[in-house]
Every structure is written in C-alpha cells, then in structure tokens.
Amino acid sequence: MGSAKKSSNQARQARIAEMRRAEEARDRRNRILTIAVSTVVVAGLVVGGVFLVRSQSDDSGDDTASDGKSTSGKFVAGADGVRTWKGTLSRNHVTKKVSYPVDPPVGGDHDQAWMNCNGDVYTEPLNNENAVHSLEHGAVWVTYTDQAPKADVEKLAAKVKKTPYSLMSPDDRQKDPIMLSAWGHQRTVTGADDPNVDKFFEKFVQGEQTPEPGAACTNGLSR
Questions:
Q1: Which of 107, 110, 113, 201 has the fewest beta carbons closer than 10 A?
Q2: Which stretches are transmembrane (predicted)?
Q3: Which of 48, 66, 84 is the last residue of a domain?
C-alpha cells in the first residue's frame, strides 16, 4: 500500500515537473517573440524617421530652388557679343515654378522633364523649367518675339529642324526680337542671316559648357 502511494506521488511530481518545464519553455518563446517584435517595430520607426527627415530636406531644397535663391551671379559680355553667366547656376530638379534672374533663362534649377530638343520647333511659349533642362543636356534654344520678321523666324526654324540638340519657341517676355541661349551663355542676333547664328550653334550645340553631355534630347515633353 505504501509502495503504491509512493509511486503515485512520484508520478504526480513528474507530471508537475513536466508542466513546469513546458511553462518555462513557453515563457522563453514568448520572451523571444516579444524581443523580435520590438526589434522590428524599432527598426520601422528608425527607417520611417529617416524617410521623414529626407523628405523634409528634399522639400526644403525645392522651396529654396523655387524662389531662385540657389542661382546667383550676372552676365558678363564678351568681345564676340556672347554674354556669359558668371556665378552659380544650380541644377536641382524641382516641382515648383522657378524665378529666374534673366529671360530666357540660361540655367538654374529646373523640372525633371526636359523639352524634346532634337530639332524641335514649338509655336507656343515653353515652360522655362522644362527648356532649361534641355540646355543642361547641351541644347541651343532659339527664342523670338512678335517683333521678329516672319522670314527670319521661318529660316531659323528650318535651321533648328535639321540640327539635333536644338529647339525653338516664341517668348514675348525677352528684351530683343531674336535671342540664342545655351547653358550659361546667351546672345542677341539681328536675324537669321546674322553670321553669329552659325557661330553660336557651332560652339554651343553639345559644347564644352554642357553639364550633361550626351544626355537625351528625345523622350521628353513635346508640349
């Protein structure tokens, strides 16, 4: 009888010990799971914080660029009649309107989309932000006002159409009837037959001033 009781107690103690081991194992699993979840949450917060800071930083850059503060300097006229920008021409991509110091602009912050400049002739004014991106790719931009003779406009359009890395559009805000612009450079010409037209094209179409030589003048905006 005593032996049976002793055996029963031992069996009960064994079951209790087994239950304790199972409970301890469960506690260990719960602690590991809690630590793992906490690690994932903390990592997510860190990544989210970094993304937020970067986003705010990017937005701040756009604000600075949109008011033109990141472009500074002035034109210096050369003996050949070409005005060269002396100063800073920033190159940030922005989504807002940019207040350029000259019109047409010769550089500065611009839209991420460029205007097609593979000999493209536009009959409507362009957004400066898109055209400046074309200048960054090494294009020459021909602009004219309603004071430019129609015959000159037609001759210049014909020249642009056969010249890769060039584009043309009207711009009634500029001070002279016909102007030629490249990144950091600009000049006025008297007409389509002015020899300075060819000189400007030869020097600045994909010229040494190009910030991104070889960049595309196609697959951009056509209007």
A1: 113
A2: 32-53
A3: 66
Q: Are 25 and 53 members of one domain? A: yes
Counted domains in the chain: 2
User: pLDDT tens across 186-203, in order?
Assistant: 999 999 999 999 999 999
Task: State pLDDT tens for residues 90-141.
Answer: 999 999 999 999 999 999 999 999 999 999 999 999 999 999 999 999 999 9
Q: What is the mean pLDDT of residues 146-161?
A: 98
Question: What are the residues whose beta carbons fall under 8 Å from the beta carbon of 140, sequence distance 6 or more?
Answer: 163, 165, 166, 167, 180, 181, 182, 200, 201, 204, 205
Same domain, 92 and 191: yes
- The CATH number that applies at residue 127 is 3.40.30
Residue 50 sits in the same domain as residue 79: no
Within 10 A of 211 (CB to CB), how many other CB atoms are there?
A: 14
Report the distance separating Cα 73 and Cα 86, nearest Å.
5
Q: Which residues pair with 115 in a beta bridge?
A: 221
**Digit-coded pLDDT (tens) for 16-32:** 556 556 555 555 665 66
pTM of the prediction?
0.71
Specify whether 10 is located in the same domain as 76: no
